[in-house]
Specification:
307 residues, alpha/beta, Conserved hypothetical protein from pyrococcus furiosus pfu- 392566-001, ParB domain, 6-stranded mixed sheet, two-stranded antiparallel ribbon, 46% helix, disordered N terminus
Length: 307
């Protein structure tokens, strides 16, 4: 197994050539020959890695690497009713840890199964390292596209900081555009309060990206507070930030001529970061300003520019 499998989705990690797609499994209709109980006893003979087992739900623990911090109760209730009606169609993915099992993928299904009162759940058991379990959990959740913007940003950032991945590698693993990854990670530069408002849905990721263009922290917090109460739209924040930039001698991309704007937009897409232009004057040369947000980001920009 290689990390390149992650670029093809989680399914590439759990399928074996001889494995068959598991049938739909109705609640509490499990074959005794494949049941693992809370006593740890298994009535089945030796299993292969791709076999679907039916494990006591109390033996399963959530992953400590789970990037999702919130689970909407209404969505879990809806999934719970579906499980009661149709069973768990897609098995969980777990790994054995000290006589118990740690979730790699499927925490929403596990939580919903608990709500539904199931005593056992279908699961694929795989022996994987701590590092690969973390990577699989992060990628699986990102690919499902139902994390909030800050949860996604933290997951992207962990792949970069803990696995020394580049933006290109993260984009490949998760199936996202490199600019999407870069813009998401930038949100982590916002004040913790603003990040919390994005997680709570009081602000959108668009608000967050617009606020990043406001250089003054106190002013940024003031705009964010107004926006969280419905007082400022994303476009209004962008216009306010643009005025601040012009007052410092910068020209926003929206204010430049079409050819220059197109060139700057292309440069931003290529570098995955914000680029600003300061036009030349009789007394001062023009400047092209490329933003970076930490030392690793600066080094990635350096590598890209030196190619």
């Amino acid at each position: 197994m290689t990390r390149n499998a992650l670029g093809r989705g989680l399914g590439a990690l759990i399928r074996e050539p001889e494995a068959q797609s598991p049938p739909q499994i109705a609640p509490n209709q499990f074959e005794e020959s494949q049941v693992i109980t809370s006593s740890g006893a298994a009535t089945a003979p030796a299993r292969d890695q791709s076999q679907t087992l039916h494990i006591d739900i109390d033996l399963i623990e959530p992953s400590p690497h789970q990037p999702r911090t919130t689970f909407r109760e209404a969505a879990l209730e809806e999934l719970s009713r579906s499980i009661l009606a149709s069973g768990i169609i897609q098995p969980l993915l777990v790994r054995p840890i000290d006589g118990r099992y740690e979730l790699i993928a499927g925490e929403r299904r596990w939580r919903a199964a608990q709500l539904a009162g199931l005593s056992k759940v279908p699961a694929i058991v795989r022996e994987v390292s701590d590092e690969l379990a973390l990577e699989m959990t992060l990628v699986e959740n990102i690919q499902r596209e139902d994390l909030n913007a800050i949860e996604s940003a933290r997951a992207f950032d962990r792949l970069i900081t803990e696995f020394q991945m580049t933006l290109e590698m993260v984009a490949e693993r998760t199936g996202k555009d490199r600019t999407t990854v870069s813009n998401a990670i930038r949100l982590l530069k916002l004040e913790s309060t603003i990040q919390e408002w994005i997680e709570e849905g009081k602000l959108t990721a668009g608000h967050g990206r617009a606020l990043l263009a406001v250089p003054d922290s106190q002013l940024r917090m003031r705009y964010a507070h107004r926006a969280s109460r419905g007082g400022l739209t994303v476009r209004q924040i962008e216009r306010l930030a643009s005025r601040r930039s012009r007052s410092r001698g910068l020209v926003s991309n929206e204010q430049s001529d079409p050819n220059t704007r197109s060139a700057i937009d292309e440069l931003q897409r290529s570098l995955g970061t914000k680029v600003l232009l300061r036009p030349h004057t009789k007394s001062h040369p023009g400047q092209l300003i490329i933003e970076f947000y930490d030392e690793p980001h600066l080094m990635r920009l350096y590598d890209q520019l030196m190619k």
